[in-house]
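Journal club prep, shared notes

We agreed each person brings one worked example of a sequence with its structure written out as tokens. Mine is ROK family protein. I'm keeping it raw so we can talk through how to read the token line rather than staring at a rendered picture. Sequence first:
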Amino acid sequence: MNVLGIDIGGSALKGAPVDTKTGKLLAERHRIATPDVLAPKDMALAIKELAAHFNWKGPIGIGFPGVVHGNVIRTSANLHKDFIDLDAGKLFSKVTGLPVSLVNDADAAGAAEATFGAGKGRKGTVLLLTFGTGVGSALFVDGILYPNSEFGHLKIKGKSAECFVSAAAKERKKLSYKKWAHKVSDYLNQLETVLWPELIIVGGGISADYKKWFKYLKLRTPIMPAAFLNEAGIVGAALSAKK
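Then the structure, token by token:
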């Protein structure tokens, strides 16, 4: 089954058709920048544009950066507040004229890694974190997902952790990889204390540069980059539509 996987981020949406049997992209990833915060109807039009780019007529799976119950969005920390409590699946399906399913974006990335990537066949507790505009998280125990784990919003100095350790925070504060990695290390140490994961997988665009900053982390847990790097969310979003 082939599905158009779309990963909605804080500054762009990215997508490609995916072979859900293998996890492979069937075309080059297409990106639509969203420098302005899009209201739901405008986001729906951007999704329609992305589908039209591939002349897509089949099902669409979409990863959204927030808590998702069914196709209803419950939180929207980094996107338009009108998404909160919206049946976005219904809206996106109406605008595109295609069947749409939604999933939390980090859960999508985690599903891709658990099915085809760095977490495939791993037993025990596996934590996936995506560092981008915010910090997404997905928690698996023996390959089973605990959905909508929002560890990026744990509090540091009264604010969400992602305000300090996201890739966007690194750029905003003009931190070197070393200084940023020290902050990330402190954050991961907190998660280690609470969750005792047996593997940490890191996704998001900055995962491609893991050799520049993993060496500065001081962890007891093995850590590795996502096998799909920044495409994990696309693949996982497609898998969500397969179910």
